[in-house]
Amino acid sequence: MFTSFSLNIKGRLISWNRPAVMGILNVTPDSFYADSRAFENESTDRQAARLIEEGADMIDIGGYSSRPGADDVCPDEELRRLEQGIAAVRRLNADIPISVDTFRADVALKAVTQLGADIINDISGGTLDDKMIEVVASTHAPYIMMHMRGTPADMQQHTDYTDVTCEVVDWLSRQLAQFSLAGAGDIIIDPGFGFSKTTDQNFEMLASLPLFNSLGRPILVGVSRKSMIYKSLDITPAESLNGTTVINTLALERGASILRVHDVAAARQAVKLVGLTNNQKYC
To answer: Where are the alpha helices (DSSP H) in 54-158?
Structure first.
């Protein structure tokens, strides 16, 4: 069951009384889902407009693809891409919360303090850059803490769990304690579907998603068009919208607070219908 949550966005308290939908804006030429790539200015503007028109509650901008085998991107180029994406969103909407998808502390700091980003989304949960805790604490930016073992290049070599859900919950609990002691504020947890987990482990975590509520934080679920869907169904990422909606619906029933998606309209529909099923009329 959904629990309402709020985030302090640079002194502005924003509350959600229904699950939020985070739209994905990839300013990259090599993200795993080709239709989500918005590398040129025109395509970035078009993608940003679509996400906002479809009703995104927040937008997550990435300048560094985390798929296995993706090209390395230097910090300056990553910042240039993030700046392009943030500018495109801000031309359309001055107030929508913007998240930056980066594991680099210096990139996160500049994105929040200079480029106008609001939220830091770190796929490594602070393990790939030990300065990330300091940045999160000093900026007071809401932080999305995702679980991953290793790096995007080798993460699928680190799937040796005894009990994947319990081990991920335990790891997140320990990271939360470290960030909280450093003075970090709002933290959102992300189990890390598709990152250092096998397909079976992804579905095991989904089935056990209510266990993550023990951490007392909003839960972000990011399964949009991922391999746990398209490999299970023997289809392509482009054909995975229906499967994504099914998994998102199951996640909502199990307490997800935020859905991170490529397809905002479909996710908003899932949120509304799940709300009606639970006698909650979400706007």
So the answer is: 75-92, 105-110, 132-139
3-state secondary structure of 47: helix
- Check if 67 is active-site: no
The answer to whether residue 81 is catalytic is no
Q: Which residues contact 171 (CB under 8 A, 6 or more apart)?
A: 125, 147
- Token duo for residue 68: 């296995």
Max Cα distance, the chain (Å): 49
Decide if pLDDT at 213 tops 90.
yes
pTM of structure: 0.94
Kindly report the three-state secondary structure assignment for every residue of 16-38: ECCCEEEEEEECCCCCCCHHHEC
Nearest CA to 258 out of 134, 117, 99, 81 is that of: 99
Question: In this structure, what token pair is assigned to residue 248?
Answer: 């998102």
For the segment 168-181, the average pLDDT, to the nearest whole number, is: 97
Catalytic residue chosen out of the listed positions 260, 268, 272, 281: 260
Question: Which residue in the list 81, 110, 226, 254 is annotated as catalytic?
Answer: 226
* Spatial separation of the C-alpha atoms in residues 240 and 61, rounded to whole Å: 21
The Cα 148–Cα 280 span in angstroms is 34
Residue 193: CA count within 13 A, CB half-sphere: 29
First to last CA, the chain: 17
- Counts of helices then strands in the chain (DSSP H, E): 9, 10
